[in-house]
Amino acid sequence: xxxxxxxxxxxxxxxxxxxxxxxxxxxxxxxxxxxxxxxxxxxxxxxxxxxxxxxxxxxxxxxxxxxxxxxxxxxxxxxxxxxxxxxxxxxxxxxxxxxxxxxxxxxxxxxxxxxxxxxxxxxxxxxxxxxxxxxxxxxxxxxxxxxxxxxxxxxxxxxxxxxxxxxxxxxxxxxxxxxxxxxxxxxxxxxxxxxxxxxxxxxxxxxxxxxxxxxxxxxxxxxxxxxxxxxxxxxxxxxxxxxxxxxxxxxxxxxxxxxxxxxxxxxx
Length: 268
Known about the structure:
The protein is an alpha/beta fold. The protein is built from 10 helices and 9 strands. The two termini are 28 Å apart.
């Protein structure tokens, strides 16, 4: 699950380069694990929203490092089949290392816009923090609806438009070509986008924020974000100075806005 991708690029080539390996994603996941104020953890919260039953067939799109399933052996064992997909072979290799080979798990390179699965194949489809990368999102959503069973559920976590990256862009006075946040699929517009293919869509928000006590960690995190790559042109010491100007006793507090959509193809 690419669960920490705030400020992701809109360019498909940049996206492929950004997720060619798991290095940058690992930096972002580690940063949020360390400094998020909600200690339940975003991944734990996401899974807590899933309606699971024994023998179900599950498809995850954009599985990333497979972090969503680490430490969930009992859940994995209950699935009839889990297909983990990503467009990056490198990510899939990392997911396989993290989760291992199991009789009921399949790893496949796949594009949400052209899924290699038959109609009505899955009880549940997951697409966390990845829909905003999809060039033709309507085509991707229609593909999800096609492979999902009539009584199935689509879960897609994403970010909101009132996040810490927008706040940091204000601090560093970034705009235009220097700051182009990806709002292709957010908590603000996702319900409308999903509504074209699903009869029932529910939005749930995850309450969280960042309480950063080590400025160096924040700097390393910022330099891993595609949408803030202009910060790489700012001298390191000046970068730290600007951040410190917005700190209190060396601590930086920043907003986070995440959530999940639960979409069904039938009226409840």
